[in-house]
Amino acid sequence: MTQQRTLAEDGPVPKHAQLSDALAELAATRLRPEEAIPSERTLMTTYDVSRATVRRAIDSLVADGLLQRVHGRGTFVARPRLESRLHLASFSQDMRRRGLTPSTVLLGIEAERPPADAIASLGLRPGGPGSLAWRLDRVRLADGQPIALETGWYPRPLLPDLDHADLSGSLYEVFRDRYGLAIDAAEQTLWGEAADERTAARLDAPLHTPLLVFRRTSTSAGVPVEHVVSRYRGDRYQLHMSLSSTSTTARTNEGNRP
Predict the structure, then answer these.
(1) Which residue segments constitute the domains of the chain, with CATH numbers given?
(2) What is the pTM of this model?
(3) Fewer C-beta neighbours within 10 Å, C or N terminus of the chain?
């Protein structure tokens, strides 16, 4: 990129948008994921634009998820986001379906008294002898890249000696094979937040990285087994949903018509 290029001075497309298009093409055709784009000074010289124009162009591509800034190092082509459809599966199952290798960093497992929302979800009696649950903290990775931080609560009476099980893979497989509890239903809520310092460090992400947060209560034959909050890196993970303007009730009624 040593040869100077000229952006159109006049016309409906401003210079920062033209530069964004040029950088997007560069990232798509000549650079690999996690490869650095040219420095701001190089872009200023190459395209004969101001630093403000360069930063505005880069900002728009960072917001779109095409580029990623790393403090103190520069700006890099972002890895494509992993895309998921909403379905009942463990993280390990989800990653294997994509041809990726799931792995886990176990941060800790302890028998503790859960918070109120977990007690309610798991149907535990506050203060009772069966009110303790396993708290399990894990970082989930795909092909060695941190994707999600999980904090889960699991009824101790239902899952004795869970702390002696192999927790490096799919918990759902452990529940099924070790305890005879096949997860067959779940209720899930999704929201967004920004990574705080602790979460960012565990996910090897910049501070305030956008997160997709899932709170899930999973059951086996109607028995609550899991209350887990999973924080996914929003720059590495996205959801796909198929929507219809026809309601489920309307489709059911139509199907029942003679």
Answers:
(1) 15-77 (1.10.10.10), 82-240 (3.40.1410.10)
(2) 0.64
(3) C
